[in-house]
Design goal:
Shape of chain A: elongated
Number of domains of chain B: 2
Order of helices and strands of chain A: HHH
CATH topology of the largest domain in chain B: Beta-lactamase
Distance between the termini of chain B: 115 Å
Largest sheet of chain B: 7 strands, mixed
Largest sheet of chain A: none
Radius of gyration of chain B: 33 Å
Strand content of chain A: under 5%
Oligomer: heterodimer
Chain lengths: ~140, ~575
Amino acid sequence: MRPNLLLHTHPMMSPNRRKNANLLPVAKIFTAIVVLVTIGGGSLYYVDAKNELHRCGQRKKELERELLAISTRDEVVTSRIAKMSSFDSLRKRQVIDKEAFARLTPVGDTLVVRMQEPAGAPRETQVRTVSNLQPNR
Amino acid sequence: MALGFTVFSWRLLDLQVNRADYYKAIATEKHCARQTIYSRRGAVMDVNGVPLASNEPVKTVVVDASVVKRPEILLELLSKHLQIPLGQLQEKLTRQKWDATENKMRPAPYIVIKREVPEQVAEALRTEAASKNLRGLVFEQDSVRVYPNGNMLCHVVGFVNRENKGVEGVERSMEEWLKGNDGFRYSEHDRTGKEMVAFRRMERPARDGANIRLTVDMVLQDIVEAELDAAVKQFRPKMITCIVMRPGTGEVLAMANRPHYDLNQREGVADESRKNRAIMDMIEPGSTFKVVTSAAALDCKLVRPETSIYCEHGRFMYGGTTLHDSHHGYGDLTVNDIVVKSSNIGVAKLGIMLGDQRLYEYIKRFGFGDRTGIQLPGEIGGIVHPPRSWSKISITHIPMGHEVGATPMQVISAMCTIANRGKMVTPQIISSISDSSGAVLASYPPVEVRQVVPPEVAEPLVSALKEVVSKKGTAPLAHVPGFEVAGKTGTAQKTSPGGGYEHGKYLVSFAGFLPADKPELCALVILDEPIPGNTPYYGGYIAAPIFSKIAQRAARHLNLVPKAEFLKVGGSLVENKRGNGQ
């Protein structure tokens, strides 16, 4: 007698024998793989995210250091400019570098020209002379 | 096996649950730290933003001797860059510290080699150390307070101590605004000591100190300082003080004293040089005080400007003593001329007419005996004895500015009151306070204290003060070409420590304002015991020309418009005693 491939039976097989005895539980295996991959992938993603967090933290620290270095350099330069342009410093340089400052002379009163403030424009209601020319009558 | 797993499980629960807090505390102690975020001290600047006090970043060079591998190369490098002798460095680096965990002495992990190292020096040292792969060198950020203008405005700006706390001047009076607030941050560190930024916890950023803007104009300050230096050279006084103010608002535009000192080099500076004499010195104001007596007599309607007072021809017997007029003996003088000629006898008679109580009240109304309230530390109120403490002759001495202790600030404040037509304003040295971004946090508008005398009383007094700066008066040398100047001289004999007055020692002064009708600036110059040489020993000859030079340059800087009718004094040129024709 021929075996029934569809039902997985054979005429010689005992009826008590369990069906599908040698077959792989594909569905279960697939589920297990999916679950394991999900958990494993999630764990790897978690680890990667943590590392990224640490890398960002280190980068933040580097940027903070860079910012501090730039602001420090800025303060140093500002301080130097303040020192070099201070009245005290300029006066000392004036004594030391007489030649450079020799061309600077105090402005005397004879060199100052003062402009008079222009007369303000007359108001709308103000009576004013338009012309001194008398019309021919 | 089940028993084994039970034991392990119990142990796990014990560690993770029962004793969780205990182990968490140990971990926190080992890996967590509170880091202070230091704030920057605010800057002090003049009215135009010129920095007067600022911070300069510096480094502290530290060596961790426990990790140094090649000490001889490191020592050489440090000695070369930091200018420290090798022997001194060797002694520092060989320091050892007791290590409790290993139970033995180990090289110290934190040795301060040098503080306040300039940034460029530290950078050069770091670069060379890195090129030679030297370990153990650490640079800590720090800052040092610098004063770019050295000894200019030193008494006003003041300085800080090593803890960066204000000790004198504006640095002290505005300490609460300048200091800022340090921040903090809780963070975790890994086993190598590196901060794990991702695990930063609570953080509060630092709030930098506010910036203080003064009312002082450094250009005017420079003018004043230069003229004071010239006066010190010429007259070699014990002390000299000059204050320039804007009468309408009370703003102090310049303030200088001699002796003075460099704010960046304070070691070994004498206390006398550090004193801000403008607010801390007590002087007898002398004849400049006569404006107070005259204003009081006019306000009480006891006299009018044209009222005639007999001035005893220079000798007045009162209370068993003889009072003299210093310049000249006069017969009848109007109240106006008493001020113009600075008659001691005339003003003493005005004081007698006023009486103790009324004179005392007006002296207090003019601000004497009380602090002016300027925002500087250490101001004194001067001394004005109440009438019950006066002697028989006090009523003749006080009106001419003796037996009264006043600060230069009070004297110029009284003169500004007259310039303001009787309105007293509080002197101001602080203009505004702003944060590091420039946003204004506080400003100081003019503060009117009171109307001391009405304008109709102040006006005739101003007329008299104008005449003082004329050939008729005691201070023709105070004239400023192009401007009508009003002012009063003072020549006060100095008191002797043992009582009475010292012969031949005077405090000379001039307080004046211009333009007289609409004053824009008021200045006071005081010299203590000048050596006059060939110059007559009067305020009109010593202090007045200094005022004239300062006012002339200041008027140009402030863009005050001169008028042709005031180019000369009384129609003819007055030769300045220093030889400059005006």
